[in-house]
Amino acid sequence: MVGILEDKDRIFTNLYGVHDWRLEGARARGVWNGTAEMLSVSPEWVCEQIKASGLRGRGGAGFATGLKWTFMPKQESERPHYLVVNADESEPGTCKDREIMRGDPHRLIEGCLVAAYAIRAHDCFIYIRGEYVREREHLEAALVEAADARLIGKDNIHGWDCNIRLTHGGGAYICGDEMALLESLEGKKGQPRLKPPFPAGAGVYGCPTTVNNVESIAVAPEILRRGADWFAGFGRPKNTGTKLMSASGHVNKPCVVEEVMSIPMRQLIDEHFGGVRGGWGNLKAIIPGGSSVRLIPAEEAEVALMDFDDLAGRKSGLGTAAMIVMDQSCDVVAAIARLSYFYKHESCGQCTPCREGTGWMWRIMERMVTGEADPKEIDMLLDVASQVEGHTICGLGDAAAWPIQGLFLHFRPEIEARIARYRSGPGNVPGATLIAAE
Fold first, then answer.
1. Helix (H) / strand (E) containing 325
2. Which among 5, 13, 84, 98 would be 20 to 30 A from 108, CA to CA?
3. Torsional sign, CA 56, 184, 404, 247
């Protein structure tokens, strides 16, 4: 058997679109099975089951999903409750949610109904990334099927009225932040709101709102079907369940797989992704969870576990569990410089540290690539990164700072040597000069 997770325990059984993604095929795979029974108990019971399962948000932050649901008001009032599903998957290297929306849209829709019941919401918005055309088409078709079969909507067969609407953004990375997403959803410019108030108090249109990632919502019905203990039986304490994980870059078989939390990183790469290109000895570094966490070198990757706590202990993070694998042929300095440009480009400009700091860090990183920088600028760059980190309304400032911090934490001698070579004789450093500073 490849990996740890057995086929009988897989939640996403049409991850690669081999089977029918429409309603008939989804029902054959167990979707919409026993949904009415899930909604026949109290919302509090549903929340407690999700809490007992140990499910943590699959969008990157890793906040306890069941606990998040309990933040919503316990009584309905004149202010309606809303559920918002964050399908704005714009993190570089991350491509897991699109597989759910493309191959298993009914599983997400069923999850929306269950989650809406748990938080006492009758309206749900799925906010999808604008570039996801095929995913949007499948979701729209699945929503029509579910409504025609009276699985959702008013007076549906499950006994909880829930209208689910699909809306798409313009492709801005900043709208992956829940507060910027809410602004965009209301038709405003996608900029984060100050917190508090938090969405559970004042979200969409000033009403109580819960925002969750696609994967977090999609797994909820299966947890209730099989039991919280079943889900909690996978992984280490506080890092339980199954998780969609992926690898891109220098692996032999880049793809998305469902695996057990806390699986060793090397086992995941060797058994699911065909190993590192050129063998494990050719590995240089890995960014474990999309581009917005610190990279870890090969020696740490060999013993790292794919969960929140282990990677946090290595000064990195699980993030979306979308690994970016870099072998010895990769210019890791140029790779991080390219990410710096991405974050500079995607900054909404609302916060001064992010608006000014991301551009400043990118321009210095460009000089680090060629070695044209002054050695003193290394500490200056790290100082600026620390001033951007934790000083912005949303997490984009952290996402811009962490890759740079990880680079210098593990590869500072390489950069210092590159600067020394350039200063001793220009032209000795391989690689083309990047775009000049603005």
1. strand 322-327
2. 5
3. positive
Instruction: Please list the alpha-helical segments (H only) found in 212-331.
Output: 214-226, 228-232, 265-272, 298-301, 308-313
CA angle centred on 174, ends 173 and 177, rounded to 5°:
115
In whole angstroms, give the CA distance from residue 385 to residue 404: 8
Query: With a threshold of 0.70, does the pTM exceed it?
Result: yes
DSSP 283: E
d(CA 314, CA 216): 25
Amino acid at 159: G
Question: Taking the CB of residue 399, how many other CB atoms lie within 10 A of it?
Answer: 29
Q: pLDDT 10s per residue in the chain (438 long)? A: 577 899 999 999 999 999 999 999 999 999 999 999 999 999 999 999 999 999 999 988 889 999 999 999 988 888 999 999 999 998 899 999 999 999 999 999 999 999 999 999 999 999 999 899 999 999 999 999 999 999 999 999 999 999 999 998 888 899 999 999 999 999 999 999 998 899 999 999 999 999 999 999 999 999 999 999 999 999 999 999 999 999 999 999 999 999 999 999 999 999 999 999 999 999 999 999 989 899 999 999 999 999 999 999 999 999 999 999 999 999 999 999 999 999 999 999 899 999 999 999 999 999 999 999 889 999 999 999 999 999 999 999 999 999 999 999 999 999 999 999 998 875 554 444 444 444
Question: What is the CB neighbour count within 10 angstroms for residue 275?
Answer: 18
For residues 89, 90, 91 and 93, what is the CA-based torsion angle, rounded to 10 degrees? Answer: 90
Distance in angstroms (rounded) separating the CA atoms of residues 316 and 406: 8
Give me the helices (H) in 96-255, please. Answer: 97-103, 105-118, 133-148, 178-185, 214-226, 228-232
Determine the residue type at 287: I
- Relative to beta strand 242-249, strand 322-327 is parallel
CA dihedral 414, 327, 131, 144 (to 10 degrees): -140
**Cis peptide preceding 73, ω within 30 of 0:** no
Of the candidates 334, 333, 335, 358, which has an alpha carbon nearest to the alpha carbon of residue 345? Answer: 358
What order of strands is seen across the sheet that includes strand 296-297? 255-260, 242-249, 322-327, 283-287, 296-297
